[in-house]
Amino acid sequence: MLCGIDVGGTHTDAVLIGPHGVVACAKLPTNHDDLLASIREALASIVAVAGPTAISRLTLSTTLTTNAIIEGTADPVGVLVSGGPGIDPEAYRMGGHYHVLDGAIDHRGRQTGAIDLAAARPVIDAWAAAGVRAFAAVTKFSTRCPDQELALKALLADRSDCVSLGHEFSGRLGFGRRIATACLNSAVWRVYNRFCDAVEQSVAELGMTAALNVLKADGGTMPLSVSRTLPVQSILSGPAASVMGIIAVCDIAEDSIILDIGGTTTDIAVFAAGAPLIENEGIAIAGRSTLVRALRTRSIGVGGDSAISVSRQAVEVGPRRLGPPMALGGPVPTLVDALNIQNVIAVGDPRASYQGILAVAAANGFEPEEVAEAAILNAVNQIRSEVAAFVREINDRPVYTIFELLEGRQVRPTRVYVMGGPALALSALLQDAFSEEVVVPESFAVANAIGAALARPTFSVELFADTASGRLTIPSLGITRQVADNYSPAAAEGEAATCLRDYLASIGAEVEDAPIETVELSSFPMVEGQCLVGHNIRVACQVRPGVSAAYKQAVSKSC
Amino acid sequence: MLKARQPLGIVFFPAYDWAISPTHPERQERLLYTQDQLREEGVFDIGGITELKPDLATAEDVLRAHFCFPDVASVTTTSHLISAGGAIRAARTVLEKEAKRAFALVRPPGHHAMKVVHGARGFCNINIEAVMIEWLRDHYGPLRVAIVDTDCHHGDGTQDVYWNDPDTLFISLHQDGRTLYPGTGFPLELGGPKALGATVNIPLPPGTSDEGFLFAMREVVMPLIEDFKPDLIINSAGQDNHFSDPITDMAFSAQGYAQLTELLGADIAVLEGGYAIQGALPYVNLGLVLSMAGLDYSHVREPGFDAAAVRQSAQVTEYIEDVCRDILKEVRHPRGPGKGDVVAGWFTRRKTLYYDTDAITEYQTEAVRLCDHCRGVVKYETESTRNPLCLGVEAPVGACPACVEEAYRIYEAGQIKGEYRHLQLIDRVGKITSTYTG
Fold this sequence. Notes:
Strand content of chain B: 15-25%
Shape of chain A: globular
Radius of gyration of chain A: 25 Å
Number of strands of chain B: 17
Largest interface: A-B, 46 and 47 residues
Oligomer: heterodimer
Helix content of chain B: 25-40%
Number of strands of chain A: 29
Distance between the termini of chain B: 62 Å
Largest sheet of chain A: 6 strands, mixed
């Protein structure tokens, strides 16, 4: 049986799924000071029902790394970079231990300036003396040629606990993103590995033998053992759990919108033909863009606890959350209070909701019912217009070929799936606002934990072959080899898929139904003088995020 | 995080599935390394820089700027319509204030395409700047526009399109026409009788480096723009003055291009030529983008660049100083329109044009009516090795009622007479274009 645990901001949800459906579930308040305690408690309650050996796979979604980065409790990192020509690498400075070295690689992976290792030595000595044990080494275009990063790693070998190299995270371009990704990875490395140690210990103490996985922001999983060297891949996996949950419990085949209306925000995701869209460039955290792949989602500050502000001109909801609803003892009226006095829901003390809204209404010469109705309408309208803007943005994305411009697939959602606390309460109003069919799945209380439990492993590789210089690289797998001058795009596509499959097998990921798809395949004739000298071939392959087919039937309800 | 001081929209359309021929300079690979460089530098992650999808220009958009014979479909491919649409998207971004500036990094280019189009010349079929500018004027009303063409080749097409338009200042800096295609662009080419001094040519000698270009910009281009007081400044941003360009002989650097861009302060830049696709384009384009966005470009430098090795000689410096002084004098006190005859109130000139890319020869008579009330109706009688005699007639923006009437009279008389195979009318006052095949 598969177990999923989602450690969320408010609750920790756990669920155990067998071949015939949900066997056990638990919902506990999250202990923010001790996330491990929340996990241990959730696991214990599952084990109490099912026994320790019944669980074959456990997948965790946790805010540990996200919190460490956002709260600034991660470790200091010594960052060595080389930029060569272009934007001044100082623009991407991370923290106080950041040093720019001479050295340059061009877009084809040719070293156009040697890396200055001699200058790096005293810098490393000074950092080591200051107690820095985590490092990152990043060079521009290292995905086309990782040699300079590898040279820096060798230099750091006996001085460090952890060295993150830029090219290990993605084959995609983005020097600033690569610096942030490698640096954040090293910054959370220690706290994450201690957490892994503790999780493994707890699992052993409970007598469990399950394979351990963690959820990533792209909605896929990776083995816990692998995540130890790539902890940054576990950031911001919260929305992914919800999205994977809705995939698990619903049969989504067409273009659709997913709305997860929470306490503070509404998260929006878009599905094309039943598959979630991925933000291939990577996700941003603490104001820094990274190369960590994520589901393409958008968040707006409209949720059940969003404060209502009233003026003579307008009634608005959010984006601030100033505490719980007044019905639950909060300081200001919220969307939940508005729904409460309109009798759409019954939360806490409805009189407190009424008094609170009455006060802000009277101050502006309105009736409380007017304000409540206007607030609900405002929230629904904000969600609707944000969804429209998001879909428009997706359909307006840049394209690079005539074919794409003329034939490029447009996303046209026909359904809106709504989940989260106020989902049911708002569904009728949302149906009025949307022309698409609005669907509230029957059971979504622990859909996020179900999403974690059933998510499949994902991984992506980018292959870059330059037959003129005779070199092929797959940066994220550390592969660099010679390539013949008749190497073809078809061969490249096959090799990328094979390497991806082999990698998944090597880390023990269950690849049963992990479909590998090519997301990019291009080949450019390279000409020098008037002669064709070779081809520049680029392939990107991925395992599309999805849920285990075998178990999906057990939890799927028609909705 | 980096943030643009000037919000910038970039339309990037590399047309990865289009080439003139597999080994032609204008091929799929041309913007590949530029895209790599911009992506690697994280240009599209910079706050205030937005990547935009091109529009698709329509035949109507093209017919506002050109006479196309036999018709638009025969002289364009989808690629040209996207390229022109990319320029339109860039302009729209600026006029609608979505960004302060915009850069259309698109291909194929357009500045060798003239008013009359029978095919491709200098890799250009339609003039994407002209299609863009006339789209703007159609949607936002009359605009005074300055076009500064910094491509190494003379912008003969743009010059021809705007030859009779006093509201468009066209300035071309280029390698001297005695040494490079298309062999035109001399200081005495100053515009038609109603637009004298609105065309300016600055031929520069082979070997001109950063200081020569920047001198011409400071001493000639900027003062003339200041005199003209344009509503919009457009840069036809060709990048083939680069010292590593394979088909030219100049010595400009990425730093020089970035400085020129900063000096010019164009609202809209549109990519033209530039065929050193590995050694120059990635760096020049990056420099341009950073410069337009008001960001630091001081670290942008070609690998192995040695300024001393490409610096222009003292003779070149002296020559450029002389030429610039003479040009300024000629432009401010023009001695009269160049070659042409006045026949019955029309200023007429005859042109023979060769379309090198498509191997077409065209024989053309251009006539502009010397009207006292407006810039005058213009007509083109043209035949080529591809088309028999054709007629194009235009009532320009701001044409007086008599000139509009004259335009229709000529168009209708042409149909009745039956001596033309294809006829095209552009009425910019009534916003009507019409075509007729006899």
